[in-house]
Amino acid sequence: MNQEVVKVILECKKDIWKNQELFELVEEYFENSLQTLDFCTALEKCLKRARDSQLLILVALQQFEEETEMGGSRYTRTLGELKNFKAIGDPFTEEFFQIFQSVYRQQIQMLEKLQLRKTKLDKKLKYIHAWRKVSSIIFVATFAAVLICSVVAAAMAAPPVAAALAAASSIPVGSMGKWIDSLWKNYENALRGQKELCH
Asked: Cβ-count burial of 14 within 10 angstroms (0-12 exposed, 13-18 middle, 19+ buried)?
C-alpha cells in the first residue's frame, strides 16, 4: 500500500467521510490493496516452488555427474531426481493466474474510476475558477457603481451627505466581496485536495 496515499487520505479524512463518492473510492482502494497483498502472497508461494524446482534440477545434474564419473549406464539416481522435478509440476498454479486476473481487472477498474473522478474534479475546478472571477468582477463593478453614485450625489447634494453615503456603502460591499471570494477559494482548495487523492 502506498504510504503517501494513506497519508493524504488520513489528512483529508473529514472531507472524505462527507463525500459519499469519494468515501466509496477510498474503500475500494483499501479492498484492492488487500487483494493485491493476497496476490503477492500467492506469487511468493509460486516463486518458492520455482526455487525448489531449480534445486531439484541442480541435484539431478550433480547426480548425473557423479554417476558419469562412476561409469554408470542407467543413471537411476539422476532419473529419480528428474521424476521428482516432473512431479512438482508448474510452480505457477491455476489459482495464481486466477488471483492475478482478478487483481488486474480490479486495478483497471480502479484506474478508470480515478480517471473519471479526476475529469469531474477538473471540470468543477474550471467552473469554480470562472465563477470566482465573475464574482470578483461583479463586486468590483458594484464597488465602482457605488463610488460613481457617491460622486454624483456629491455633485448634486450636500458634500457631507454624499461622503457619509459613500463610506457607509463601500465598506460592506468590499468586505462582502472578500468574503465571497474566500468561500470560492475554500471550495476550490477542497476540490484540489480531492483531486490529490485521485493521483
From this structure: exposed
**What torsion do the CA atoms of 36, 40, 42, 46 make, to the nearest 10 degrees?**
150
CA dist 148 → 112, 136, 166, 170 (Å): 54, 18, 9, 11
Q: What is the CA radius of gyration of the chain?
A: 36
User: Could you give the residue ranges of the DSSP H alpha helices within the chain?
Assistant: 3-11, 13-18, 20-69, 76-88, 94-156, 159-197
Is residue 41's pLDDT more than 80? yes
Question: How far is 41 from 47, CA to CA, in rounded Å?
Answer: 10
- Residue 71 · residue 110 · CB < 8 Å: no
Whole-model pTM?
A: 0.61
Per-residue pLDDT of 125-151, as tens digits, reads: 898 888 888 888 887 787 777 767 766
- Rounded distance, CA 85 to CA 164, Å? 99
Closest CA to 37 of 93, 103, 94: 103
What local confidence, expressed as pLDDT, does residue 145 receive?
77
pLDDT of 102 above 70:
yes
Q: Dihedral through CA 30, CA 116, CA 119, CA 9, nearest 10? A: -10
Please tell me the distance from the alpha carbon of residue 182 to that of residue 197, in angstroms, as a whole number: 23
